[in-house]
Amino acid sequence: MDLVVVGAAIIADGRLLTAQRAEPPHMAGGWELPGGKVDPGESDEDALVRECAEELAVKVRLGRRIGTDWRLSDKAVLRVWTAEIVEGTPQPLEHLALRWLTPHELYDVDWLPGDRPVIDAIADAHLI
Ligand SMILES: Nc1nc2c([nH]c(=O)n2[C@H]2C[C@H](O)[C@@H](COP(=O)(O)OP(=O)(O)OP(=O)(O)O)O2)c(=O)[nH]1
What we know:
Elements: E1 3-12, E2 15-20, E3 31-32, E4 35-37, H1 44-56, E5 59-71, E6 76-87, E7 97-101, H2 116-124
The structure holds 8-OXO-2'-deoxyguanosine-5'-triphosphate (8DG).
8-OXO-2'-deoxyguanosine-5'-triphosphate binds at residues 5, 7, 27, 32-33, 35-37, 51, 72, 78, 112, 114-115.
């Protein structure tokens, strides 16, 4: 069974929120979608709402799924949903930094390799 990682494409005012990883060392400094691993027995959607609360101190409402399973490695897949913030202002509680990217800035950060096709899909579908 693949390990499932869930990620949120949080969009507000035509911008996409991205977060800079603090660890592990080989990923630190790379930019990703907020999210994390689904716990045993937890639904993907519940995990994503929980991770956004833990990492960003915001309550999110999930929207549509972006694509299907995006392969991260031979053992893990990434599943992504659009999301909107319904409560709070994002704080980098577990990240080095946060950035809101306009469509023009979408490729200005050093995305984790696994995220690049997802960002392409977001751009192609004009989700921001
Ligand atoms: N959250 C997130 N993780 C990603 C993305 N792209 C990507 O390759 N990953 C990788 C990085 C990590 O190896 C893994 C997610 O692990 P994590 O450390 O964020 O998960 P977690 O919060 O549940 O952490 P932990 O309980 O293991 O400490 O997936 C992404 O866009 N968002």
